[in-house]
Amino acid sequence: MNEHKPFRQAEASMTQNADDSLRNFEKARMVIKAEKYHVPVLLKESVDGLDIKPDGTYVDVTFGGGGHSREILSRLHQDGHLYSFDQDADAEQNLSGSGETLDNFTFVRSNFRYLKNWMRYYGVEHIDGLLADLGVSSHHFDDEARGFSFRFDAPLDMRMNKRGGQTAADVVNNYEEEQLADIFYLYGELKSSRRIASVLVKERNQGKILTTQDFVNAVQPLFRRGREKKDMAKLFQALRIEVNQEMAALREMLTAATDLLAPGGRLSVITYHSLEDRMVKNMMKTGNAEGKLRQDFFGRVECPFRLVNNKVIVPSDEELARNPRSRSAKLRIAEKK
Ligand SMILES: C[S@@+](CC[C@H](N)C(=O)[O-])C[C@H]1O[C@@H](n2cnc3c(N)ncnc32)[C@H](O)[C@@H]1O
């Protein structure tokens, strides 16, 4: 009889674990209530990439509508923990206000560039995995008042964190012409960036550019017919990246994550434009955002990560059909050595 005992114990603990997962999932569903806020992108692929240990410590630095957080929580047991960050107050509203709480979940209303400080604050020295699903959520594009979309007329704001920092109107009205051109070229990959900057400067000399429609009216005549929407989207993206200092925040977060991850810990990052993707790729291949190869005394490349996927993972045809907003997503996964 005795030789069966370990099996029975294993069976009992499997049932216990399954119960734990179900309970966690149900509770997470109650605590994270958003359904329409955002459709999670590459959900299974990115969370599978974390290779979750049920008792591990995980971070989702981009909570948004909580789709990825909920999936991570469903795979954790009571002794695991998830810290989820978002700098936007609207994202926090996706947590149930009913007083329901999850013991193994902490929401951090902050920019993820302060990841290290917050982990220190919570007494966390190492994490087993970090997920980032960068950029803005569908909610940002669909909320008429936030100024992220050229489909609506709204104050030219575009701040994810409305508590502070410069707005898109501040950038458009105060930056030097050359600075504006650089932003449009670097973050929007727009060939006509100099012309756009020059037109904006002329326009603002007539009167401040304060709304999305002021901005659209100024630049629209520059775009070739048939390309207006694509180019406008690129221009709005460029402004948004500058307003929210997205590249600097990403660099700081990736550096902190590299230090915090325990050996065997996973980094799973979804990007939506080429500059972000390049920075993530560099970090995973070389351990620094610039992609500088470092070699040891014997000429061996030193890198804190092992790539889990050599080729980027992109949404399947089924996902693209179901959620066209996933079209530019690229997922990279690496493991800390
Ligand atoms: C693409 S959405 C994430 C969606 C989420 N994974 C889901 O399934 O619902 C990105 C979220 O990250 C937040 N975010 C972007 N940059 C951030 C930063 N530097 N610090 C904190 N939150 C940030 C945005 O406010 C937005 O809610």
UniProtKB/TrEMBL annotation:
GO CC annotation: cytoplasm
Pfam families xref list: Methyltransf_5 (PF01795)
GO molecular function: rRNA (cytosine-N4-)-methyltransferase activity
Enzyme class: transferase
Alphabetic keyword roster: Cytoplasm, Methyltransferase, rRNA processing, S-adenosyl-L-methionine, Transferase
Entry annotated with the keyword S-adenosyl-L-methionine: yes
Listed name of the protein: Ribosomal RNA small subunit methyltransferase H
Organism (species): Hallella bergensis DSM 17361
Gene coding for it: mraW
